[in-house]
């Protein structure tokens, strides 16, 4: 790594008071342990994470770390719960699903699935309620049907921030995300406008962020 980049990154870590790590159950424990070692090195002490406050969030009922061709034992071994850090962490359980508080039926369905309480057939498959399914005929029509289900009255409400931020479509692959984005944007009313960004670090008297815009732009990847 370039010395200037390493310098501002280290200083940024030193100045940071809180680190948030979402979906921690999906991360391999070695990644988390390496961050622990990095912060110890940056802060110059042997405290966990260099004495910094680190908040991990996630649900172990969801996806565990992906280990190619691994056994169940190997997958569990890669999990955070097998890290030397796990027993030193304070655990807090959230009891209210704020995101789904207006849809109690869906929230309860998710909990039953996560807890292994939802009935299954002889092959272990769960039956998804019909109202949660968008039928598939062909890719183009099905994508538009999905968009209409999630974004009804799009033409009339496309300029409403609350409307747009209150719903989302998730996909497993970036190529599917790109296709959904392109289709959704094509349905927006009005003329397309392009706004070019200008990246600059301000109030950086010590040049901690020198070269950051070039670094960020060089690492840019498609969101998922």
TrEMBL record:
Question: What EC number(s) is this enzyme filed under?
Answer: 5.6.2.3
PANTHER family on file: ATP-DEPENDENT DNA HELICASE, PTHR10492
**Key words, A-Z:** ATP-binding, DNA damage, DNA recombination, DNA repair, Helicase, Hydrolase, Nucleotide-binding
What does it catalyze? ATP + H2O = ADP + phosphate + H(+)
Does the entry feature the keyword DNA repair, yes or no?
A: yes
Per the record, the similarity remark reads:
Belongs to the helicase family.
Query: From what organism does this protein derive?
Result: Sesamum radiatum
Query: InterPro entries from the xrefs?
Result: DNA_helicase_pif1-like_DEAD, P-loop_NTPase
Record's protein name: ATP-dependent DNA helicase
Domain named DNA helicase Pif1-like DEAD-box helicase: which ranges?
Answer: 8-123
GO molecular function per UniProt: 5'-3' DNA helicase activity; ATP binding; hydrolase activity
Question: By its UniProt entry, which SUPFAM superfamilies does this protein fall under?
Answer: P-loop containing nucleoside triphosphate hydrolases
Gene3D superfamilies attached here?
P-loop containing nucleotide triphosphate hydrolases (3.40.50.300)
Q: What class of enzyme is it?
A: isomerase
List this protein's GO terms for biological process.
DNA recombination; DNA repair; telomere maintenance
């Amino acid at each position: 790594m370039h010395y200037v980049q390493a310098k501002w990154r280290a200083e940024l870590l030193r100045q940071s008071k809180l680190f948030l790590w979402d979906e921690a159950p999906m991360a391999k424990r070695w990644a988390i342990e390496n961050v622990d070692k990095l912060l110890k090195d940056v802060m110059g002490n042997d405290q966990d994470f260099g004495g910094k406050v680190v908040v991990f969030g996630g649900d172990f009922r969801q996806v565990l770390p992906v280990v190619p061709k691994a056994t169940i034992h190997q997958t569990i071994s890669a999990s955070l719960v097998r890290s030397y850090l796990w027993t030193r962490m304070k655990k807090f359980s959230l009891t209210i699903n704020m995101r789904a508080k207006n849809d109690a039926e869906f929230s309860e369905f998710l909990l039953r699935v996560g807890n292994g309480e939802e009935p299954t057939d002889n092959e272990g498959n769960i039956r998804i309620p019909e109202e949660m399914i968008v039928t598939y005929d062909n890719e183009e029509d099905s994508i538009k049907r999905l968009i209409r289900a999630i974004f009804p009255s799009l033409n009339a409400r496309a300029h409403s921030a609350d409307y747009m931020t209150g719903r989302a479509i998730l996909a497993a692959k970036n190529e599917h995300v790109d296709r959904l984005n392109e289709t959704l944007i094509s349905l927006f009313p009005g003329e397309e406008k392009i706004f070019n960004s200008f990246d600059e670090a301000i109030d950086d008297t010590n040049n901690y962020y020198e070269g950051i815009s070039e670094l960020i732009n060089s690492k840019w990847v498609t969101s998922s």
